[in-house]
Each structure stands twice: as structure tokens, then as C-alpha cells.
Amino acid sequence: MGGEVVQKLVVVGNGMAGVACVEQILRHSPKFQITIFGDETHVNYNRILLSSVLAGEKSIHDIVLNGLDWYEKNGIDLRLGVRIIDVDPVARTVTGDDRSVTAFDKLLLATGSNPLIPSIEEVKKDGVFVFRNLDDTRALLDRARPGLKAVVIGGGLLGLEAARGLQVQGCDVTVVHLIETLMERQLDATGGSYLATKMNQMGITVLLGLSTTKVLGNGHVQGVEFKGGGSVPADLVVIAAGIRPNITLGEKAGLEIKRGIVVNDYMQTSHPDIFAVGECVQHNGICYGLVAPLIEQGKVLAATITGNKGPKYEGSVLASKLKIMGVDVFSAGEINDKSDGSEVIRYEDPSLGTYKKLTLKNNKLLGVILVGETDDSHNYMEWLRSQADLSAMRRQLLFPEASADGGLDVAQMSDSETVCGCMGVSKGIIIHAIHEKGVNTLAQLKECTRASTGCGSCTGLCQQLLKAVAPEFQEDIKKTICKCIPFSEDNLREILRSQRLKSVQEVLDIYGNGVGCEVCKPALSYMLDVLWCGDHDEDRSARFINDRVHANIQKDGTFSVVPRIRGGVTSPDELRRIADVAEKYQVRMVKITGSQRIDLLGVKKSDLPKVWADLGMPSGQAYTKGVRMVKTCVGTDFCRFGVQDSTRAGIELETRFENLFTPHKLKMGAVGCPRNCAEATVKDIGLVGQEGSWQVVVGGAAGKKVRKADLLVTVETTEEALDIAALFFQYYRENANYLERTYDFVERVGIEKVRKDTVYATETAKDALRERLGKSKAHSRDAWLERDEPHHPTQFVQIKPFETVLA
Amino acid sequence: MNANKEWACIANCDDLPLREGRVVTVNDREIAVFNLGDRFLAIDNRCPHLGGPLADGIVTGESVVCPLHGWKINLEHGNVQRPAESLACVKTFATKIEAGTLLLELASGTPNCPRTNGHAVVSEAAH
Questions:
Q1: Helices (H), A108-188
Q2: Residue-number span of the structural domain to which B83 is assigned
Q3: Contact A555 B26 (CB under 8 A)
Q4: Which of A121, A461, A503, A684 is most enclosed, with most CB atoms within 10 A?
Q5: What range does the domain containing A337 cover?
Q6: Which residues are CB-contacts of A719 (< 8 A; sequence separation ≥ 6)?
Q7: Which chain B residue's Cα is nearest to A542?
Q8: Cβ neighbours of A544 in B, within 8 Å
Q9: CATH code, domain carrying B71
Q10: Chain A residues with a Cβ under 8 Å from any Cβ in chain B
């Protein structure tokens, strides 16, 4: 054993197929010295989740499958950024574009595929992209911005996912498809039209049966032209018209090539020591472009190459799932009607947007299409794989009985049943991992078995299995707001954005229980306000009474009124008006608050508009989760010690942020010297004046919790200090959970990350924060102006009965 | 009692916004009326806990949450749903719509406690 010769295995291609195959090889035998060449500069990542990166649902980091440590641990020589340009099958060497020559005993080609570029005139223009790898995704993210017109050429899986991603980035998106049916390789005409309707409802324009002939524009793309003369304007074009196996090296090695590199059932090419796997191969006449087949091929190839030749690759059942939140599409097996004795079972409901079609022959499932409702896809997939006789189940085929017991679903599965179709992981393998490898979390399960690392559609099933079997199962911490709407706030923000939802009731109807409660309604209301920068359909019934009448409800049902006194600086005239109002409306208590303001307590709801009018001062927002006030000291105007004009800075700060809403109440302070008389270091945002500079501090508190604020940054000028405060303010508004004070937010996120995303963010990112804040500010107004223009005629008044009649 | 069925003309339905409460005072009694979209419900404007104004609460389904301390009251039957252990109930009033006008039956449901109406005392656990 010890004397066994170590062979050199060279793998060309660092993508999913190549690396998955190497993982399998390592399981069989350590007798190879492995070198992997990858022309991208990244470690192996999950290519099919690139659309989730474009849609902002996942970060680049989230989709890494094998980190550098994995390569290191397994002694793999990883050559990133090197493209292999030649193969010498006789001398057994490969040559890189860095002129390196590497010898091999066995060569594995996993070169994948290239985007297919249809023949379109003048396609090489600035603004025309393909969507294939991480660099393409980065380039698109870099270019896409709100308001741009984007045209995606190709209405297949990838094209539609790209379209949705661009829409999430704010673009107006049009999908142009050559065929009359979207996703025609996966759907029939009816399924395609259901899908087109869904895409339209999302706000994506779908143009069918159009052949793009020319890219318009002078240097930079301005539109695309179609056969027959029509055209649409475009600032950005993405070509997603399909893929072509990358066979260049196969040709150079003199291998048998058809559409792809031809392999037999053992994944051998026509050269005894050259193997191929993945999208670059053709097996039994078929080139595959999905994950599951690559993994299945990799397993067979690993057995063959390590001398354990035995298992054969016999082709794969094709299954695909569209990864667009809110647009559920699943397709597997045979999709088209055939007159060969097969039967078709259909169900459709246009108003629900649900379409299901099963194709059966001799009571066995041949194919399935699901649009709008894909919960049962794993059942159908299993029936396809197992070719089980379904005669006993004919009545329930389209509507498998839902089980109330979540564990039952998994309990009914046999051990050999596949859970993860992409990675080919069965229930038995998962249970084994849980029992033998101490797997307790989804993350551990992914690491250990690779289950749920493909398209991610089996995640729910994996969770259920873990829950049922793992002794110490821990659900990934994703707190939902309440039971009405089962998503974390991060998810919700993403949903609201991508689905362009603008009212609370709409969100509850589509993603919640349609009813909502006192917990989720105000939270959703806030999220919509921030997301759309105030330009949403405000629903007062979703808000707490304080936000319906702009005053703070007291224990006896009366209200308190706190006018805005910016920076705590008032005038004799204002004070006189306040005193007059207090007397006129018999205010029960006039109180100087801890925030340098004056509170009028015990005002009746019906008096509120009159009180505001008589005060002639704006709302101090003392009743809401919003900008409260800036507490200031007298700074340089009068104080002997003041070194910064904190009064002016405080008033300016208050003016810039007033009338805006925040996740929780937000109090600020500005002090003219480190003596800190106005206690800025225990405020949500504080400006602390120093000789020649300002410290901007955040996350302070002196309420239920006492916390000294963290220093965000020190800057020289007042304008810089105000700008930094604005960046933090908007960052908090966008990223904190509802009812999360800055002190909890800063602790949860970490001040380093806050700094990175605000002070040290790129100018583009900073400008984006400023722009959204500016937009929100432009939409905001003093709530007390509703005294003249009430939001609703009976907003403040009691209703007077007309008369009493006898029935 | 039926002979004395007294309906009070309360308001134009348009004056009652969707899922928000409004107060109407009839014979010195504050009644909270709610527009649930498909029907109108009316209930004493007084939380059995500490007298909070139910008309100012957030509506959830056919219940309202008192703005003061979060008690949850069913608008249909008047029973307290949260806290679950409370047996208290609030008086409700029958409503009807005639030509866009909301009418309340003031004499209705005088006892109107689920206990005496034969409803379950606590029909739902607190959520």
C-alpha cells in the first residue's frame, strides 16, 4: 500500500462539476496529487445562485461552496486565474495562458459552457452583458441602477432570474424571448402563459415571439431592434439566450466531439486517460445544463478514475425550479403532450395563477409542470425517479393530502428517497449524518452532506428532517415579527422591494394571513415608509393611535402635545403662545420635559387641531417612533468653555431629520465641549465638540438601559459632522429591525461594520444613503398640518348621531 | 324587548374609514364603531381593564387591541381574548346599513356577555 505510486491528476475547471467530482475522488482514494486550474479568480461557488446575488438575497460570500481552506486541507494545488489554452495528449501536458506547462497522468476536463450569443448586429457595445459568472454578476450590479431601462434577451430560467435581479436593483425590465412560450424547455404553452402573467404582475414586461436583430446606439447601447422593424429603448442589455458546451480543449486533445465532448457510461472520453464531466460533455446525445446531472456524473467518474469502475451513468431526469421569490415554477421530465398512450392530468385556476400538469403512462409519472404552487414538487420528483405505480393514488395526484403534522411528511419518505435533487442526497444519508456525524444545524448538514447547497428548494425538507431526527436541532436564528407573516425582517424588506409592494394590507394579503395584528402592522408600515422613502400607500389603520392623530395617548384617553422647539431654543413669543394655549384649553399640566421641551398634558382629541393652530409650531413627534429632538448646550454663544457652536449644529441636525420616522424613537444631542452638559454621549446620535473637531458618537442611551455611545468618527468641520450623522441615521433607518433602538442595533451589528458601511463606505454607497434620505425628507411634512387638511374627515372628531328613530 | 327595538341613525358609512374605530356618543354613552370592510361592528368604547378607548385601538381580524395595555377584545361578541384568563366582556350593539347610513340598535344585547349568551366564556386562547 505504502509504495503505491502517486498519480498526477490535473483538473481543468474550478466550477461546480469539477470540484464536486474532486470531492468524490477524495472519498475514494488519496492516491492523486491534484492540481485544479480555474480561469476565474474565485474559489468554487454555487453558480446557480448568482441570480440570488444579483437580486440582493445573497452575498457573494454566501454562495462559496469550497473555501481556500478546503483546497489546502486536501493538499490541492489551486491555480486561479490561469486559463488552460492547450493540451498535448501524447506528452500528457497542459499549457496555461501564463505559459506554465503542467504534466498529468490523468486529465479531467470540466470546462463547462460559454454563453450562447445569437447573431445580433452590433452586439459588441458598451452596456451589453452576459450573465454567466461572478464577474458578470459584479459588472451587472455595478451598472444596474434605479430608473435604467434593461432588456434581457432570452426568457429561459437564467434570463428570467436575471430580469428579476435587475428589477430588484431598480431597473425597468423587459424580457424579449424568441419563442412564444417562456421557459419553453421546461413549460408547455399554458404553463408559459401563466408564468408570463406572473412576470407581468411583478412589473416585468414580457415580449414573446420576437427575434432581436440589432443592438442600437452609438458606442453605448440605446435600444434593441427586432426582426420586422420594431424596437425598444434600453440602457443595458443582458444576453441570456442559452449556453454552448466549451469544447475547445477537447478538440485540441483530439477527443471525439459532437455538440459536447463525447463520454460513455463511465464518463470516459475517447482517450483512455482523459475524462470529462459537467456541461462540456455529451452523454447519450444529451448535453446537460443543470446541477443534478453534473453531480451524478461526478460520482460515476470518481469511481471510474480511481479504479473502482462499476457504476454507470445512465442519464438524468431533468428537473428545474425557477428561483424568483413569489413566482413558483417547477418542471421535471416529459413536458409536452404526446399521442403515444400517455395521459395528461391538468388543473388550472387563472385567478390563483395556479397551473399543474402531470403526464402519466401506464400509471407511472413521466413529467410534471407546476406553476404558482410547487410545495409538492419533491413528491412528484420521487414518483418520477422511482417510477412508482400510482393507480392507487389517482384521486389525489394533483392535490396530495396536506398533513397537519409537519414531521409526517418526512416520516413517510423511505430512506432511499432523494431529499436534495441537485446534490443527490437521500433521506438515509442525512439521517446517517445526523446520527454519526453529530449534525444539528442546517449549516452543519450543508457542510457534511452538501444537501441543500444547490438550488436550495429542499431547504424546508432538510429542516424538517433535522427537526424530526436531530437531538439538539437548532433552527437558524431568523426572528419573524409575529405569526401573521412568517418572514424575518430582512426577508420581508427583500420581498417588499422586489415585489414592489406599497401597502400594508397588500403585503398581508399576499405574504401573510390577510389580517395582521397590532405587532406586525406598525412594523410593516414603517418598513414600507423607509423602503419607498415615504412614497407608499400609508394605511392609518395599520398605525398606532398616536400616529393617527399625532399626539401621545395618556391613561385617561386624552393626549399630550409637545411642539417642536429645535435645539431647545425658544422665544418669549413662543412661550407666551404656549401659555395662552394651556389656559384656553385648560391643559391639566404644563411640564418641562427631560428633552428641553414643553409638554401640554390632558388635551382632548377633538381639541388637537385647534391647539396646534393656536400654537403655530410644528409637531415635536414626541408620540412616535421617529426623530424626537436634539438636546444642546449653549456652545460658543455664551459659554466660557464652549469650543464648538453646538446650538447651531443641534438646530441644524434637528431641522435636517425632523418629521422622519425611525425604527424606534431617536434622540440626539450636541455639546460644545467635552464637559458634555447636554449629555450627548447617552443619545442615539451625539455630536461632541472638541477644539478644532467634532466627535460623532452613536448608540448611546439613558433609558431602560444606560449605555455610553460608541465613537463613530472624528471630523473637522460641522458640515462633515452633520453628514456623518446623516449617513448613520439613514443606515439605522434601513437596517435596524422595527423597535430596535440604536444601542441594540449598534451592538448587534458591531461598530466596526457600522463604520465600514457609513464612514468608510464607497462614495457611491454614501451617495445612495444620502439620496434616499433626501428623498424621504422631500416626502415628509409636519404632521400637524393635518389640522387644516385632515387625513380623514372624522380623524379628530366624535361622530354625532343624526337622530333616534323607532324601528 | 323586540317591541322597543330602537335604531339610532349614527353616521354616513363614508365617515367611518376602513379598519379604524370612531366614537359616537348616544344618550351619554360612548360607543366605538368599526368598519371591517364587509360589515360594521359596534361596542362600548371602554376597555374592561382600565377603561381605555377601544375606538383608538388597532383592528386585527374581528378584534381590537386596546391602545393602553394591549387587551384584545372581540368586536362581535365582546369577550376578552387577551389576557386569556379574563372573563370580562364588553357590551356590543347590533348594526345595520340603510341607504349608506349606519344604524345601531341601542337596546340590543343589554346583558350581552358571552357567558349569559351561551357562548363560550373564553372562546379563543390568547395569541
A1: 134-143, 157-168
A2: 2-112
A3: no
A4: A684
A5: 326-396
A6: none
A7: B58
A8: 58, 67
A9: 2.102.10.10
A10: 483, 515-518, 521-522, 539-545, 548, 553, 555-557, 792-794, 798-807
The yes/no answer to whether this complex scores an ipTM above 0.90 is no
In a domain, B45, yes or no: yes
Could you report the per-residue pLDDT of A711-725, keeping only the tens digit for each?
999 999 999 999 999
Q: Model's pTM, two decimal places?
A: 0.60
Residue A595 lies in a domain: no
Instruction: Decide: A300 and A311 in contact? Cβ < 8 Å.
Output: yes
pLDDT single digits (tens) A302-353: 999 998 888 899 998 888 888 887 788 999 998 887 778 889 999 999 888 8
On whether both A642 and A759 belong to a single domain, the answer is yes
Of B7, B10, B17, the CB nearest to A541: B17
A14 with A140, same domain? no
CA A137 to chain centre: 14
CA distance A274 to A666: 66
Tens-digit pLDDT profile for residues A18-44 = 999 999 999 887 789 999 999 988 889
Å between A794 CA and nearest CA of chain B: 6
* Residues in chain B within 8 Å Cβ distance of A548: 20, 56
Total structural domains within chain B: 1
Q: Report chain A's C-alpha Rg in angstroms.
A: 32
**Residue A405 amino acid letter:** D
- Residue in B closest to A794 by C-alpha: B15
Interface of B with A (CB under 8 A): 5-11, 15-20, 22-26, 33, 50-53, 56-61, 65, 67-68, 70, 101, 105-106, 127
- 3-state secondary structure labels for all residues of A446-500: HHHHCCCCCCCCCHHHHHHHHHHHCCCCCCCCCCEEECCEEEEHHHHHHHHHHCC
How many pairs of residues across A and B have Cβ atoms under 8 Å apart?
Answer: 98
Q: Is residue B97 within 8 Å of residue B40, measured between CB atoms? A: yes
Helix H or strand E encompassing A198:
helix A189-201
CA separation for the pair A51, A129 (Å, rounded):
14
Q: Sorting pLDDT into bands at 50, 70 and 90, what band is B4?
A: low
Q: pLDDT of A694-714, one tens digit each?
A: 999 999 999 878 999 999 999
What are A682's three cell numbers? Answer: 447617552
- Terminal CA-CA length for chain A: 102
Provide the residue count of chain B.
127
Give yes or no for a cis peptide into A245 (omega within 30° of 0). Answer: no
Q: Report yes or no on B25 lying in a domain.
A: yes
A263 & A291 share domain? yes
Nearest CA-CA partner of A24 in A349, A449, A320: A449
By residue count, chain A amounts to 807
Q: Amino acid identity of A231?
A: S
Query: For strand A172-176 and strand A149-153, is the pairing parallel, antiparallel, or unpaired?
Result: parallel
